Amino acid sequence: MDKKIEKNWQTIPAFLSCAGNNLNILEEEVDLSLQKEYFEIIRELSSKPQKYKQLCSQYLEEINNLFDESIDNEVKKEC
Questions:
Q1: Tens digit of pLDDT for each residue in 25-72?
Q2: ∠ CA 57-61-62 to the nearest 5 degrees?
Q3: Quick one: pLDDT at residue 1?
Q4: Could you give the C-alpha distances from 21 to 7, 12, 14, in angstroms and in order?
Q5: Among 47, 49, 29, 30, residue whose Cα is nearest residue 38
Q6: DSSP string for 46-57
Q7: Angle 74-44-23 (CA atoms, 0-180°, nearest 5)?
Q8: What pLDDT, in 10s, does the model give residues 15-27?
Q9: How far is it, in rounded angstroms, from Cα 53 to Cα 35?
Q10: What is the per-residue DSSP string for the chain?
Q11: Is-contact 61 68, C-beta < 8 A?
């Protein structure tokens, strides 16, 4: 194994111990199309501050719907 790669692998335990409870590892794979949608939304919000303020206000009104499993994910995205 390349020495640089080996050294990087050796630093992982130290990194994990520093992160403590602040580190979350996904147990499930995130769909690539969903990731793409997320980054497109972020890009749009960063270029339109008014849209961001509007969505923040709407988020506070709709927060409970995000965790309601009876509501379809596509409907949640539109909210």
A1: 777 777 888 889 888 888 888 888 888 888 888 888 888 888 888 988
A2: 115
A3: 54
A4: 24, 15, 14
A5: 30
A6: HH-HHHHHHHHH
A7: 75
A8: 777 777 777 777 7
A9: 22
A10: --HHHHHHHHHHHHHHHHHGGG----SSPPPHHHHHHHHHHHHHHHH-HHHHHHHHHHHHHHHHHHT-TTS-HHHHHH-
A11: no
Q: Cα–chain-centroid distance for residue 21?
A: 17
| More confident call, 7 vs 71 | 71
Tokens for 72, please give them.
């379809």
Amino acid of residue 32: L
The answer to whether the beta carbons of residues 50 and 56 sit under 8 Å apart is no
Structure tokens at 57: 């206000």
- Indicate if the pLDDT at residue 5 is higher than 60: yes
User: Residue 79: what pLDDT?
Assistant: 64
